[in-house]
Structures are given as structure tokens and as C-alpha cells.
Amino acid sequence: MSSSSSSLIVALVSKSYHIYKKPVDRLKQLLLSPLYEVCLKRRVKQYFTEFHALSDVSFKAARGETIGIIGANGAGKSTLLQIISGTLSPTSGTVEVNGRVAALLELGSSFDPEFTGIENVYLYGAILGLDRREMTKRLDKICKYADIGEYFHQPVKMYSSGMVMRLAFAVIVHVDADILIIDEALTVGDAFFVQKCMRFLRDFRKNGTVLFVSHDAAAVVSLCSHVIWLQDGRIKMQGSPKLVSEAYLEMQVMKSQNISEEQMNRQPSLGDRTSESQKQQEQARDMRLDFINRSNLRNDIELFQFQPDSLSFGQRMASIVNVSMTDEAGCVLRWVVGGEKVKLCIGCEAHEILKNPIVGFYVKDRLGQYLFGDNTFLTYEDKALEIAAGESFYARFSFRMPLLPVGEYSISPAIAVGTQDEHLTQHWLHDALVFKSHASSVVNSLVGIPMTSIEIIVQ
Ligand SMILES: Nc1ncnc2c1ncn2[C@@H]1O[C@H](COP(=O)(O)OP(=O)(O)OP(=O)(O)O)[C@@H](O)[C@H]1O
């Protein structure tokens, strides 16, 4: 990307803070340090420790790009975005912005609670570099977009959080921003207004640049074209939303289970099982035969071979050794038609005694968006289940295959031990079974559900 096509260039941005143990240390630093330096011509000890909230962060964003910024609490997301929006200066590094930046962080946090909605519109406009005359021209439209009625004339302290969001977003929509910075607060709240914001964002993204900040990997996958993962003030990883969010999710699982990266076995050696799965593939029945010539929009879904060597993590008291989709009679399928009854079988092997194993899966689309998933926990919650070391077992999920838009999908199975809320992942296999929808009547939604009937009734 050339710098001229970039609407935003962040180059080696760092931010550090001086941390003082006691308030008096700040005073000592302020008074003694320069005094010593002048009188004694030497540096004296520092009364603070330096904390690096951001270290050498660099990236570029082009017009039409939506960049996701993910990271745990304290990772440096707000610091970075405050620097980009110009409300905080970096300790070192530069930010080049081509155009107007409008930030909607912690929605409405820059509103003055004592001022009315209208007064805050002017205030917010001023922060974004628009004078009173320009804001007056836009006031009616902002009022209509926010749709908060008489509250527009009331002090903001009387607003519900939903009203604050409505007003803040209405302003953002009408300030002709080139770069929008928003956070996940936008995606919660009144569903109709969220949809309205999303429609604006979808449109805005065609020419503008969006920075979307979130803790939630699934949210960035559905909105962003590129994702930056911040950890301890540094870029831990950046790239495609799917890859980065998977790695981030993996790290979160490891953290919640107190597992170090070394403890994770990331090298499955299940190659010897490939031949078995190949055999299954050859014997698989083509379910399309039953549906031939019914419709050219029939949702033909091709299932590929189980990938035992796909990226995985887990403690490995057990392994996933096979994933297949079968028809009701148990015959392994190579093709399935959306809307048909199928069974998803996840074969496992225990390497040690397993108490209360949970087997589950997620189905994801090409962008890594989670479409649906389930696990065995609730069904087995009241039944003590113990599996001896060396035993094989499998979990089977029976459901109707949803109708899927044309594209590639994958199933990520997992086995864990414990409960739904507190468990230790033993083996999580990313994209273990890939499948492809070749034709579909579903175009504008993530999945379609099989209709039992469709009618027009003229009275
Ligand atoms: N004024 C400050 N003085 C000292 N440390 C600060 C200051 N502002 C932020 N920090 C620290 O910098 C780090 C990054 O903070 P930041 O708010 O950017 O994180 P974040 O990723 O936005 O977190 P969250 O998701 O919780 O909002 C944190 O450890 C925070 O405590």
C-alpha cells in the first residue's frame, strides 16, 4: 500500500507513563531532578518507573478498509485510538491522518451531562473540528437520526445509555468523517438502532476507513478486513480476521486454563489415520442422487476429507481422531443437501482416564464467523461418565443441515474435561472438516432454514 493511498499511517508509535509509588515522589522528580542536573551537572536517580502502554506500533489503513483492533483489558487499545484521534500525544512515533477522524469510543463519553442534547451536538462538533454554523445546518438531520424526541432538548444526564448512543452515533453520521473509530458498545443495545448503525457503517466502509475496537474476536471477524491483535502494548499478530481471531481465541482459552504455550501440543501426529479416512471417503455415498433434477438452486454441499493434521491445541489427555458426516443410517456422506437430516460424528481416543468429557463443535464460514455449534455437556450433565485410558469413543450430533450460501465452511471439533464454564481443553482441531456449498437459494443471510411450506393465500 503506498502512503498516498493510505488514509492512516501509524509509524512506530510508543506511549509510556511515569509511575510514582508515592505522591511525594512526583514532587521530588519535579523539583530535585532539574536542580541536581543544573547544580551538579549530572543526572540523579529517577523517582518513577516507566510503564510502556504502547511500544513501536506500526500499521497503515487504506480508504475502504475496516481494521479490527483486539486485545485483552489493558492491552493498549484505547491508548492507541486516543493517539490516532488526537486526544493523546505519543511519547515517540508519528501518526499521519489524511482526513477527519471521528471517534465514538465509550459512546458519548465526551458528552457533558449537564448540557442538553443540542448543546452537546455543538460541543461534539467543535471537538471534531466543525464550527457552530456548520453544525446548525446539520442539526435537523441529527435530531431525526437520533430519534429521541423531546429528550434532544433535555440535559444528557437524564438520558438512558441507549439514548446517549443514539445521539452520539447521529452526530458521527453527520460530520463527514473520513476515518471512524468505534468500539463494541455500538453492537449492543436497541436492535433496530444497531441495525441502522450497521447499515450506515456498511455504506461508509465503501470509501471510508473504520477502526473497530473490541475484546470479542467473533465481532471483528464479521466486520473487519484486517485485524491487529495488541498484547501488552505491542502488536502480537496482524492479518486476516479469521487467522488472527483464531490465534487470539486460542490464547484466551490457554490463559483461562493457566496453560503455557509450551504445554500446548501443537503438533498432532495422526498421519497414520489419514489412510482410514481416505478409505471412508472412497466408500461414501453421494446423497445428491436422491434429489436429482429437483431444482437448480438445490443446496449441494460437498464434504471434504477429515484433516487430522490441521492446526490444533490442547493438553492431549484425549485426541480427536475422526470427524465425519453421515446420513441417518450411518453411511458416511461425501455430498449432502442443505435441509436434510445428518449426523455429525466426532471420534475421540482417551490417552488417560477422562472424567466427564465434553465433546463439541463449531461450524464457521470462510471469514471465520461462527454459524452454529453445540456440545454434549447438557445431555450428560447429570450422568457421571468416565472413559478409561486407551478407549475410543465418539459423540454424535443429529440435526438438519441448514441451507448455506455458496462458499466454503469448516467444522472445528473440540474435546474438553470439566463443565461448560470451567473446563480444560484437551484437543481443539481448527477446520478439521471443510465443506463447500456449490449452489444455494440463500444469498443475503449467513444461513437459511429449511421451510416446511411456503404459500401465498389470496382472500
Ligand atoms: N494515564 C495513565 N497512567 C498510567 N498508566 C496508564 C494511563 N492510561 C493508561 N494506562 C495503562 O496503559 C495500559 C493500556 O491501557 P488502555 O486503556 O489503552 O488498554 P485497553 O486495551 O484499552 O484496555 P480496556 O480493554 O480495558 O479498555 C493499561 O495497563 C493502563 O493501566
Automatic annotation (TrEMBL):
Domain ABC transporter residue range list: 38-257
Domain of life: Bacteria
Lineage: Bacteria, Pseudomonadati, Thermodesulfobacteriota, Desulfobulbia, Desulfobulbales
Protein name in UniProt: ABC-type polysaccharide/polyol phosphate transport system, ATPase component
Pfam families membership: ABC_tran, Wzt_C
GO terms assigned for molecular function: ABC-type transporter activity; ATP binding; ATP hydrolysis activity
Source organism of this protein record: Desulfocapsa sulfexigens (strain DSM 10523 / SB164P1)
InterPro entries: AAA+_ATPase, ABC_transporter-like_ATP-bd, ABC_transpr_TagH-like, Bact_Polysacc_Export_ATP-bd, P-loop_NTPase, Wzt_C
GO CC, any one term: membrane
Entry's transmembrane regions: none
Region Disordered, annotated ranges: 260-279
Keywords: ATP-binding, Nucleotide-binding, Transport
Homology family: Belongs to the ABC transporter superfamily.
